[in-house]
Hints:
By secondary structure, the protein is α/β, with parallel strands linked by helices. The protein has eleven helices and six strands. Strand 2, helix 3 (68-76) and strand 3 form a beta-alpha-beta unit. Helix 8 (196-206) packs across helix 10 (222-236) and helix 9 (211-218) packs across helix 10. The longest helix has 32 residues, at 160-191. The two termini are 29 Å apart.
Amino acid sequence: MVWTLVVAARSVAMPGALHNTVDFLPKGIAESPATAHSLFRCRGMRGMVEPQDITSTVYVIDSAGSNLPAYDALFSSVHLQVEYFSSASEGVRSLNRFHRGCVVVDTTAPEVDGVSVLQQLRRRGVRLPVIVLSLPGDVAGAVFAMKSGCADYLEKPYSGQMLLDSVYEAMEEDWRQERSRSAKRELWGRLETLTPREWEVLLPMIRGRSNVEIAANLGVSPRTVEVYRSRVLAKSGAVNLPELIRIAMRLDLLSDGRAGIGPGE
């Protein structure tokens, strides 16, 4: 079962492990949902959180369900959208690469493994940051989780402010990564218009080969290579060779061979 909660800004006291969390809100913001969309500052964060990050979703996996009221109170205090999943398998099944935000995995229940959730999501092409919440004392588990690529690892009891800081940082990183992936997809979209012959000219071009060298290798005239070079620059959107090389570096085209080259995610 999936519970969806779209919350409004309000000030609440946190029960249990989540407490003393909402005093970072600027005065009057709780009474102004419109302002809440545009201005939030979290203690410990670098600068302001952009509105697009506020509208991201926190995907909470909590099989026990006992902490849901605390999560509701915490995330509603800062106008975050939240979806809850009652099992790890349900969360992994429901999320895809188009979702934005972050995943919070409560590993209090023994059947939930944060690293396993992360690995399953990655296999499905889901790049959302994963934050693991754990019982205290599992140093080895914390080290393993961070080495495996988890965005953060918090041991209970933690303050609600610590969780909010972690969530906002994860959301900011998610948007940075998505912007980077989007830019790469756009660049690949341009290069996908190249013909096989234009690819044969592009690859030696970005490695510094001259028209004469490329022509000799392809068995054509230098003038023909010049024509292909012009087409490659036009289709790639590069105004000159240095810019084309920067595009190639962004797409890792300068590595040996072309195996595995493609637009990817």
